[in-house]
Amino acid sequence: MADSKKIAVIGFGNIGSGVVEALYQKEFAGLELTKVVDIDLERPRPITLPTQYLSNDWQPVVNDPEIDIVVELIGGIEPARSIQLQALKNGKDVVTANKMLLAQKGQEIFSLATDLKRRVGFRASFVGCHALIHEFQQAGVSAKKYRRIYAILNGTSNYILSTMTHEGTEFEVVLKEAQEKGLAESDPSDDVDGMDTASKIRILLNLITNSYQTVAPFPIEGIRNVTPQDIQYADELGYSIKLVGVIEQSNGVFNIAVHPALVPKASLLGSLQGAYNGTELEDEYGVVSGLVAPGAGVRPTTDAIVKDLLDITEGKDLPMPSSAEELALGNTDDAQRRYYLRFSALDQAGVLAQISGLFGKHGISIAAVIQKEAVSKDFVPLVMTTHLAREGDVQSALREVDQLQVVRAKTRIIRILNADT
pTM of whole model > 0.85? Predict the structure, then answer.
């Protein structure tokens, strides 16, 4: 074991308290807690520290030559960005759980760390997937070229969709229950609108390409519009509905997106319940593997942070994008996918023929049709699934379908993700 590393923890909230407690109680050899920084040192916490450990000013701590590693746990962009950059410039390594910062400013942080030969540990930026980072570390970041990664990376959304599936309850009802149980924030937008998953997908793409270039904008859709009816119809077709981050690669060009998706019920992702995260990967040889882990929580996040700290202390290289190579994203319209489509149509003869005709015009082949009993005297739910089709063609067809007089509401579209498509 190398000499002990002196550590400063900046951010003394729930996660920070867990990390501080583990370090202060000397649970891990080679890690020496030196300073803890927070703007509010008065509020009660699970652990009480001697005053010499505490500070409300990060700058003298980050500039202290005795500190070896800075653990940034305050979240957000500033001052987190300044803390990490200043620590790296001062010759320190950095460990963080700040996925938003890395997704938006990772190019600046990772390029500086690469130039200065410092390390940035970020397992905790997506706890439910940190075992995947360990795999990259063992194999080498560029050792595998992945054809696809499908990932459930937000525990709150997975809990909501799982509960809606089991109880047949509306989204808003389940969200309120999740907030009351502390499983969703008072403002759940980042989770349920897909932004949290999108940040993690950006970081994953940086990892598998070994490029720290900022990822260009890509489609992001959350789960607010998923209904119990969609979940029921998906179940009848053999699928679960999940919020999935998608990375697909063909000849070095990447298709990435975040959206609700139908996944086979018997698959790893389709069977994932509660607040768990899961990742399904297919490598360049067609070998499929999967990982499942808790998606959040003080202890799992603390463990992820400590793993990075121990690797740094033991002199190990951390998986970290270190190349300035440009990332090539494909045209979203060219993505090939199967689709679930739910129409609200008039209950009269000829409706199916009109809709099918427009899809045929755009070269889209229908795989299955479910016509449910009318929900009123005027409207009937009509559900279709397609064979593989181009995204742009499907969108063009839907624009025409939604203009039909027999269609009285905007068509609901959900992508279908199969391992073989």
Answer: yes
